[in-house]
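User: I'm putting together notes for a lab meeting next week and I want to include a structural view of one of the chains we've been expressing. I don't have a solved structure, so I'd like a prediction I can at least talk through. The sequence is below, exactly as it appears in our construct file.
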Amino acid sequence: MTDSLQQRLFEQLNEIVLIDPHTHINPHAPASSSLADILGYHYYTELAHSAGIPREKIEDPTLSPKEKVSVLVEAMSHLDNTVQLSWLFEAARELFEVDIDRLDASNWEALFDAAQAKMNQPDWEDQVLAKSRLEAVFLTNDFDDPLEGFDTSRYVPCLRTDELVFHLAKPAVRQRLAESSGIDVGSIDDITAAISQRFQYFVSRGARACAISLPPWFSPRAVDDAEAHSAWLEVAAVGESAGTEARATLGYWVFWQLAKRCSDFKLPFDLMIGVNRSVYPGGVFQGQDLYDSRVSLIQYQELFNAFADVTFPISVLASVTNQELVSYSWIFPNVVCHGHWWYSNTPSIIQRDLQARLEAVPRNKILGYYSDMYKLEFALPKFAMYKRILAKVLAEQFVITRGWSEARAVEFGVQILRGNVESIFFRN
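Assistant: Thanks for the context. Below is the predicted structure for the 428-residue chain, given as structure tokens.
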């Protein structure tokens, strides 16, 4: 009974047209141009490296797309147990019409050619979006992105602010801020004005969120202008040679200015918490960062209390932090559970974390899933994985255990998948 119930719920959830609230899509080249774009996704390159393929071989800049795939295929026999490879197989079946459950020397060229034939079609981007039932996807835009040359109703801008908080000591970052805002950055007042201009610009072009990725040690606090001015003088004078305390103080002050602008412009502030950069410097590109269990959301209590009118969709890098996120979303009206990020994006972890959220967090504060994709072809298999898990939790915990009707369970699933994205990001 459970299997058939779960399948019925999945089929109904799978009909929903979605908005993906966090991706790394390039709106000027959103779909893949070859299978190398898909297998070049960091999930595959880091797994291939972990399985024994040298980084230098994986990242050889002289390789053609077909040669790059041939290199990565060498590791695929070691990866057929992973959920990441199951995404590739589902994409192959649903998008490229190639039914496979393994990838090796006997079949990779056939898949490469079949994918290339599809990708060469002039409307491939539209086909992928339609088959994936995607109406729109959020972007990750640098603060100086001109946001031109694409449909912002399909590709929704999001102001990414990591560089402003962590790299303002770099003269090049300050120069980019000055050039993009039209404001010479010579004082903290100038920085405030430049940040405000960037928010105004982004909002005028359809931005629906501000976002930042944060390391485990980050503990945001209010910094008064005198302390910020002192830190700025040191940073402005010697740049990246400024002391750790001065750079951290300036970063906290900038972060607080961002939260103030989110309040002013009524933008949610997406916080992705807990990534420790370059833990494994010998890894492949984007395969060097890991989570750190020493992070705690108590580090953000001052922020959550100070900005009660700002919604904070929170992503945590590891399942060990999920119970804390559930508890904070339970208590703080402005804290929202957001997706299953990175190392938490595997079925067993999603199921455990999702069940905890669904049974303890107000239903209007759960943003179910985002793909975090770099190319559109990943939306279909990654969302399908999540929808199957959501159907399983709804079937077992709500229909069978609580006696909900199937219609009520589907209604809940629709809210988790689509309704809350609209109410949190598109309420203005």
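A couple of points you could mention at the meeting. The chain is about 50% helix and 10% strand. The mean pLDDT is 97.

User: Perfect, that's what I needed.
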